[in-house]
Design goal:
Number of strands: 0
Structural class: mainly alpha
Number of helices: 18
Helix content: 55-70%
Distance between the termini: 96 Å
Oligomer: single chain
Mean pLDDT: 86
Length: 299
């Protein structure tokens, strides 16, 4: 009997009937799987061009596949050039409204494929942009590659012109970036959600602390939680007496918890002893020894 190598028509009909009986969501998943496999077969150059075209109907899958590739130097250069073109104001203005936000995220989604030098250059072109989404893409890239003094001017512009909290947080990582600013004045410049204020203030205090520009008495009195957090970040063991004073004076659970974290980080036995006494004061007959806390000799 001649074997054509192809299934018999009845078999094809049976398989078609089996597929047609699949739930719609399973069939859709199969279609997506086959489409993703097809996209993986594309060349890297084709993927780069399509990834920078936000009107591409398969844009998300194209970016996912491109993120799997190791780019050569010429491909990195092409990608950087196409990203800068794609995020230009003229190109953005010509797009439908629903695609503009996709363009705004393009730099952070594709910039991670670039080496640090190219990613930093791309970020420097966007960090001063009037659109918050573009600046956010830039600061996301800079968090990955690290900031240097070369980015200080652009970040400072974003803070002063657009009150950008992400730029201020990155600026706090650069030595001497605040030019004798004070913690209260710097915090008031930016617009930030209430629950992020303490963290951002701690970053500012840490920077001023490391630069030798911090008014410790003012910061501890006005921003105790941020000050204690900054003490841990700055390794400020010279201010242990101030830490103990805050422990003695507060009954705020969150602040006491932060003091405990920093006392442990700085390996201060005297601060830990003050915390143990605080627990006794807060709960009369509470025994810290029952919780396995060691009784250390005060430093």
């Amino acid at each position: 009997m001649f074997d054509s190598g192809h299934p018999d028509p009845p078999m094809i009909e049976a398989r078609s009937a089996e597929l047609s009986s699949l739930p719609e969501y399973q069939l859709e998943r199969l279609v997506n799987a086959v489409g993703f496999a097809r996209t993986r077969c594309l060349s890297t150059l084709v993927l780069i061009h399509r990834a920078c075209d936000v009107t591409d109907t398969d844009h998300g899958s194209v970016i996912r596949v491109l993120q799997e590739r190791e780019l050569e130097a010429n491909e990195q250069e092409l990608l950087e050039s196409l990203i800068l073109t794609a995020v230009s104001d003229d190109v953005r203005a010509g797009l439908p409204t629903h695609l503009r936000s996709v363009t705004d995220r393009l730099a952070s989604n594709l910039g991670q494929l670039l080496p640090d030098g190219r990613a930093r250059y791309l970020a420097s072109q966007l960090v001063q942009h009037r659109l918050r989404a573009r600046r956010r893409a830039a600061t996301k890239l800079l968090r990955r590659v690290g900031v240097t003094e070369d980015e200080a001017a652009g970040l400072r512009h974003a803070v002063l012109t657009y009150c950008d909290p992400d730029a201020l947080e990155l600026l706090a990582r650069i030595p001497d970036a605040f030019c004798r600013g004070d913690c209260c004045g710097l915090t008031r410049i930016v617009r930030v959600r209430e629950h992020d204020v303490d963290f951002l203030t701690a970053m500012i205090i840490t920077r001023l602390w490391k630069d030798g520009e911090l008014d410790h008495q003012h910061a501890a009195a006005n921003h105790p939680l941020s000050y204690i957090r900054a003490m841990g970040r700055a390794g400020g063991s010279e201010q242990i007496d101030r830490l103990i004073s805050i422990i003695d004076e507060t009954a705020h659970p969150e602040l006491i918890s932060m003091c405990a974290s920093v006392a442990g980080r700085l390996q201060s036995k005297s601060a830990v002893c003050a915390l143990e006494q605080k627990l006794r004061d807060l709960k009369g007959d509470y025994s810290v020894e029952r919780r396995g806390v060691l009784e250390w000799v005060t430093e």
